[in-house]
Design brief:
alpha+beta; two-stranded antiparallel sheet; 9% strand
Length: 466
């Protein structure tokens, strides 16, 4: 039965006692947003002169329904009062202006979910935005989420891994842009007239990460006959435990982008660089999380060892065979980790069975992280193109480049009179193709990976693909 407004009350300004998505106004809001989304262009505007375009009256009516629903739901979420007030203003201005390119900067600046991180707290978010690894267009989206901030995580953030902008979150419900592979809510995806001077938050949906991990890794272990240690097998059976693991991994990974000996802005926002640079940076952050998780495990933090298992298994199995082979930097990082472990005898593929020496793998990952960190430290004193070439040398030491690659032939094959950003055009879409092992694994897991689109709930065991 739909809950009434009065029955969903705030508890001391913290978590709400009921689910916002159970209120009738959420259904109305979601329907209105889904009416607007198909009419929008790539930049978020609506072209009423296009063939089969809706009428402006229809879109104004839908926007009015979004506004009415937000105003009805806002009292359930008093911690977001300023944001919802600004949101209504932005929605009205967009509609009154004829639904041109949307500008929701004012409401973005008013949304401050990390001001007080409270475990279980709900937020209703409505923005025109693209969803990373999801919908590339800046469509209007609505999502209700819940904060994951248990006491043990809050203490670790306070004492060891300061990250005031990080927000662990789970889905309550969402519109079409999140019925995809997207597992993040980032402010830089939102349509605004100008970028804010600084962002104050970034959210990662640990429930989606955990659910797809459980489904894909379960299938991969079956396909490769990998026997997991008993303590790791429990991750595949327990969604809540897996979510707690991912929120810790994400906390450490996220802060690592700004820690260490860094050439400059390794996260490379709005920079044009070869995709292996992104791959190395993401892998560096994951291997740092892996190393820190080992320290936490030694200190008695239960989630520490779980993070180590998830980093290795997700990187080895899911990352290389997920997504298109078009400058897939996360896939490249997984390929590199597998090759490094294989070439250092930490894992073996023999008799159609994968085995991992977990203790040796922990030691070997430290060596790979040290190689990447040495590259970064020396990169501080190198020109950009030299840094890129040295990074290419590191990757190609363990992965075979495409035989048609110009970069593989070295600097003499590149036109070094061009600015570095132009040399990125010489990078092949699949500069480091999948190995024989991964080509076969990708075929085996294709159906299982496709089934994780939009996933949020506990993942049932996956069946082996033919």
């Amino acid at each position: 039965m739909t809950e009434t407004l009065a029955s969903i009350t705030a508890n001391g300004g913290g978590a709400t006692t009921g689910r916002v998505v159970s209120h009738r106004s959420w259904a109305s809001l979601k329907e209105a947003v889904e009416t607007i989304r198909p009419a929008q262009s790539r930049d978020g505007s609506i072209d009423f002169g296009a063939e089969d375009a809706p009428t402006r009256a229809d879109m104004t009516g839908a926007a009015d329904r979004v506004i009415a629903a937000v105003e009805e739901l806002a009292p359930l979420l008093p911690h977001d009062e300023a944001y919802h007030r600004a949101l209504v203003t932005d929605l009205r201005r967009w509609a009154d202006g004829g639904f041109g390119v949307p500008d929701f900067l004012d409401s973005l600046l008013a949304f401050r979910p990390t001001g007080t991180r409270t475990d279980g707290r709900q937020h209703l978010v409505v923005f025109p935005m693209y969803t990373q690894n999801g919908n590339p267009d800046r469509n209007l989206e609505a999502v209700v989420l819940r904060v994951v901030w248990p006491d043990w995580l809050a203490e670790l953030e306070r004492t060891r891994y300061d990250n005031p902008m990080f927000l662990g979150i789970t889905f309550e419900d969402f519109t079409g842009g999140y019925d995809t592979n997207s597992a993040v809510l980032f402010p830089e995806t939102i349509a605004v007239r100008k970028a804010p001077e600084r962002f104050t938050w970034g959210g990662i949906f640990c429930d989606r990460e955990a659910a797809r991990f459980r489904r894909v890794i379960g299938a991969a272990c079956e396909v490769t006959s990998l026997e997991l240690p008993e303590e790791a097998r429990g991750l595949l059976d327990d969604q809540e435990r897996c979510q707690q693991t991912f929120v810790l991994w994400d906390l450490i990974h996220d802060r690592t982008h700004s820690h260490g000996d860094l050439p400059f802005d390794p996260f490379m926002i709005k920079q044009r660089q070869p995709f292996w640079m992104y791959g190395l940076e993401e892998l560096r952050c994951d291997l740092t999380a892996f190393d820190e998780a080992g320290r936490l495990a030694a200190d008695g933090v239960a989630q520490g060892r779980d993070v180590q298992y998830t980093v290795l298994l997700d990187r080895l199995f899911r990352f290389p065979v997920t997504g298109e082979r078009n400058r897939n930097y996360d896939g490249l990082g997984g390929q590199l980790l597998f090759a490094y472990l294989h070439q250092h005898d930490a894992l073996r593929w023999r008799d159609n069975r994968l085995t991992i020496d977990w203790d040796h793998a922990r030691a070997v990952t430290v060596s790979l992280r040290e190689e990447i960190e040495t590259l970064y430290r020396r990169g501080i004193d190198r020109p950009k193109i030299v840094h890129w070439l040295k990074a290419y040398d590191l990757v190609s030491r363990y992965l075979a480049p495409h035989p048609g690659s110009r970069w593989a032939k070295g600097p003499d094959a590149l036109d070094l009179t061009l600015p570095p950003r132009k040399l990125v055009d010489d990078v092949l879409p699949d500069e480091f193709p999948l190995s024989l092992f991964y080509e076969a694994l990708a075929k085996k897991l294709r159906t299982v990976i496709a089934s994780t689109r939009g996933i949020t709930a506990a993942a049932p065991p996956a069946t082996r693909a033919a």
